[in-house]
Amino acid sequence: MASLRPHLSVVIPVFQEQGSLEATVDEAFRVLEELGRPFEVLVCDDGSLDQTPQILGWLQERHPGLRALSHPTNRGVAQALKTLYSKAQGEWVVFLPADGQVRADQIPKLLQHQDFPVVLGRRQPRRDPIARLAASWGFNFLIRRLWGLQVWDVDSVVLYRRDVLDVEFRSRDLCLPVEVLLKAVRRGLAYIEVPIEHHPRRSGRAWGANPRVVVRTLVDLLRAWWRPGLWG
Ligand SMILES: Nc1nc2c(ncn2[C@@H]2O[C@H](COP(=O)(O)OP(=O)(O)OP(=O)(O)O)[C@@H](O)[C@H]2O)c(=O)[nH]1
Ligand SMILES: [Mg+2]
């Protein structure tokens, strides 16, 4: 009997992205319809105070298949992803940012590597400010040194086979993709990093690397390394 699950779930966390959400969602539907496999698109509004909720309402009229979730207040991108991953029903799940920095037209590149349960997109060249690039280099360096994972862009867009996400998430912030990858590797699952295109933000403000998030990520990373049982 054919599976009733969609082949792919595209999950989009959104926080105050009124200037780019519409283009991001429209493009996702266009690319996925062209691929011709059953899919679903889920958006989680992470407590936005701008026009994001209204725009989501219009988008649901335009794309009746769009599933919209929301947090009453802002909880951060990792919490938004946890909400989305828990509701996604696809055999494969991919995260897409709402700000247009990685566009849906990169998804087919990731899908070419479905012999790997985890396909990490490596943003090349990465269109972010120099301080952000330096912080990200340090983050990935640390992950290579602490766990021997061969990653250069661990917190970018990732395509996961569904079972990779069927774990209990214990981490916060940018540690979430590290925890998921580590748990997959411990189960003997293979991963690959493939180049993807990256663009400057379409609009809005960059929230990704505020000092609180950076410090919390670093603390969590070192705690998880110090106590290997922490992430289960
Ligand atoms: N940074 C941030 N993003 C959030 C939050 N909640 C949801 N998001 C969304 O999560 C996505 C963040 O992913 P990316 O844009 O790839 O992250 P980033 O490039 O590191 O972050 P920026 O510097 O803000 O662009 C965006 O679509 C945000 O709208 C939040 O609390 N903080
Ligand atoms: Mg971004």
Task: Give short descriptive properties of this protein.
binds magnesium ion, alpha/beta, Spore Coat Polysaccharide Biosynthesis Protein SpsA, Chain A, binds guanosine-5'-triphosphate, seven-stranded mixed beta sheet
Please write out the topology:
Layout: E1 8-14, H1 21-35, E2 39-46, H2 52-62, E3 67-71, H3 77-87, E4 92-95, H4 107-111, E5 118-123, H5 130-147, E6 158-161, H6 175-186, E7 191-196, H7 211-226
Parallel strand pairs: 1-2, 1-4, 2-3, 5-7
Antiparallel strand pairs: 4-6, 5-6
Helix pairs in contact: 1-2, 5-7
In short:
The chain has 232 residues and is an alpha/beta fold.
Tell me the major beta sheet: 7 strands, mixed
Q: What form results from the Cα inertia axes?
A: globular
Structural category: alpha/beta
Which regions have little confidence, pLDDT < 50, spanning 5+ residues? none
Known CATH architecture? Alpha-Beta Complex
Could you say how many structural domains there are in total?
1
Structure annotation, total helices: 7
Biggest β-sheet: strands ordered side by side in the sheet: 3-2-1-4-6-5-7
Q: Estimate what percentage of residues fall within beta strands.
A: 15-25%
The value of Rg in angstroms is: 17 Å
CATH topology, by name, is: Spore Coat Polysaccharide Biosynthesis Protein SpsA, Chain A
What ligand molecules are bound, each kind once? guanosine-5'-triphosphate, magnesium ion
Considering the protein shown, what is the CATH homologous superfamily? Answer: Spore Coat Polysaccharide Biosynthesis Protein SpsA, Chain A
The SSE string, one letter per element, is EHEHEHEHEHEHEH
Percentage of residues in helical conformation: 25-40%
Q: What is the typical, i.e. mean, pLDDT? A: 95
Number of strands: 7
Q: Ends: how far apart?
A: 35 Å
CATH class descriptor: Alpha Beta
